[in-house]
Amino acid sequence: MSSVNSALAGRQEEFVDAWLELDENYTKVAKHMNVSVRRISQFIAVPKVKAEVARRKGLMLAFINENVNKPVISKHEIAELYWEVAKAGAERGFDKEGNSIMLNPGSTNTALAGLGKLYGYDAPVEVVHTKVERTEVEIVANVQALQAELNALLAIEHTDIEDTADIAVPSSGALHTDEA
To answer: For residues 138, 144, 148 and 151, what is the CA-based torsion angle, rounded to 10 degrees?
Structure first.
């Protein structure tokens, strides 16, 4: 990231490059330049070196702010792209039999779903709470009621079986009783 600045001497230019690349770490810069930490302190004290460091930091910050903090594409541009895809997929064409069909209904559906998600149209309309709060006493009472209902059904079924037990069914399928 060397700049062409005639105001800086060769070693000063090398210092500015190393200073910014090594995150302004005195020890690392001294080791990189093969000089003492005291010499690095002398470099940074020179007004034109300070000015060059400040200028380059400003350029780096402007570059970062320009390219990182701004989105690559805006929400409006995304919506326009979705709409273009939806319209293109919904265009009509003809199949082999001459029937009018959508050219790409899948892309239309996906694009419209993306638009809906982008604008929040897929948010739930109503929240339904299905959790029921019951006490242990209520649960026991419900279980007992269900058990009683089951016993009553079993008793009815058992009675029906006893009532039909005296009817014999011959292999021919005709019904007759033992009272003859």
So the answer is: 140
